[in-house]
Amino acid sequence: MKVIYDLQERGTGPVTITGMAERLSVSTSSVSGMLRKLGDLGLVEHRRYGSVRLTEQGAKAALSVLRRHRLLETYLVAALEYSWDEVHDEAEILEHVVSDKFVDRIAAYLGDPVVDPHGDPIPTSDGRMVERPSVLLSEAEEGVVGTIVRVNDTDPDLLRYLADVEIGIGMSVRVVERQPFAGSLRIAVRAEREERARDRSLGLVAAEALWISPDGS
């Protein structure tokens, strides 16, 4: 359910069995079997060869798990000095064993953060999700200026690459040139502490993992 909600939330198209299988690193038959069970419980809606959707009850359950996951990631970075490429797998394990009381204590300790280290919004305790307008960097037109607000956290190698080239949450970015035939785009990126922007050529794989909030949004 968490994966279904996450795929829906990122707005990359309809949620399919194939997409879920790739995300979970399991077979499509395994996903189909689980969807049948979740459907019997009234948590998902899925017709054969159609897209997958959460019911209202399923979305509520997914948000509860997402809150746990994203607060745990935030705590691991803030309190235990994990890097942003390490926390996803740790949180995947911990989210199933901690209590609601423990999660609420983490939230209070951290000052009730609204986003995790990757810029993903953290659901509130009453199941609301507060998001700001954003677009994929890969889809931004030339000349667009904005702030990097979110990064896909599912690929640790990509997160390490972005850290190496010093591209991260909160940085200002301007799309200088789209280079579709080269499979990349040229950007100017600047951290708050930097006086000048740095020119970077960014592959589309990386650009498709970054969301920006355009200036004026």
TrEMBL record:
What residues does the HTH dtxR-type domain cover? 1-55
Q: Which PROSITE patterns match?
A: HTH_ARSR_2 (PS50987), HTH_DTXR (PS50944)
Q: Gene3D superfamilies from the entry?
A: 2.30.30.90, Iron dependent repressor, metal binding and dimerisation domain (1.10.60.10), Winged helix-like DNA-binding domain superfamily/Winged helix DNA-binding domain (1.10.10.10)
Cellular compartment(s): Cytoplasm
Q: Which Pfam families match?
A: Fe_dep_repr_C (PF02742), Fe_dep_repress (PF01325), FeoA (PF04023)
The protein's GO terms of the molecular function aspect are:
DNA binding; DNA-binding transcription factor activity; protein dimerization activity; transition metal ion binding
Sorted alphabetically, the Gene Ontology cellular component annotations on this record are:
cytoplasm
GO terms classed as biological process: negative regulation of DNA-templated transcription
Question: Principal place where this protein is found?
Answer: cytoplasm
**Occurrences of domain HTH arsR-type (ranges):** 1-77
Keyword list (alphabetical) reads: Activator, Cytoplasm, DNA-binding, Manganese, Repressor, Transcription, Transcription regulation
Q: Subunit structure, per the record? A: Homodimer.
Q: Which family is it part of?
A: Belongs to the DtxR/MntR family.
Show the PANTHER family listed in the entry: IRON (METAL) DEPENDENT REPRESSOR, DTXR FAMILY, TRANSCRIPTIONAL REGULATOR MNTR
Q: Identify this protein by name.
A: Manganese transport regulator
Instruction: Supply the source organism for this entry.
Output: Nocardiopsis flavescens
